[in-house]
Amino acid sequence: MLSKNKNLIVDKMCEGSVFESFTDPRYEIKIPLQKGQLNEFNTYIRNNSKVRLKKVYSNRKVNSIYLDDDDLSSYADNVAGISRRIKRRFRWYDNDLNSIVFENKIKKNKASIKQSERIINKGSRPPVNRKDVRRLLHKSISSKFFPNLEVNYQREYYELGFGIRMTIDTEMKFRKLHPIVQSKFTSSPVYAVVEFKYSVAQSAQAKSLLSGIQFRVFRHSKYVIGMDTVCR
User: Fold this and answer.
1) Fewest C-beta in 10 Å: which of 69, 85, 229, 232?
2) What's the domain count of the chain?
């Protein structure tokens, strides 16, 4: 049973599931860039005297499959910018499909909380249809949600100082899964997404560290961009 801690936001559809971890509320600041802009950004961040840039993890391919309901509620809530919204997805890294993670990414106002459950994926195939979701998840979720979009991209991992993290995502591709699974992926119209991630408690340090960035911050959901790209 999920924790009853009043400080945690609990997705009612997931009560009864055993999640192995909770992340603290954090802010995620995103900067979508085209190729030339990414080159400018890389030069800027490496020459920024405030930043102690450190690579903290090897590059890897991130794969996600987003779930939605028949009303596309998750997509609609994200487009509308609803202050309290949830994205549900499977995630795995590189080609390791033996053990995948099911995540609830919960947004409340500007802060996010992530709930994760690791799942043994017998058969090692991506969950691209309702049958796969029923196979992997408990009934309370699998009866309502279906796989709607597959996304993959290359991710670089850095730390800027004070525990403030930065990721750079490139080579983003999308594939529609519903009502028919597309055979090919479509490239994103956005070349790269730079994302800064830090806890609510680190807001002051992050504001000081990022204050000189001369690149515009935008709302950017890979799920929304992917849906808009493959459903046009």
Assistant:
1) 232
2) 1
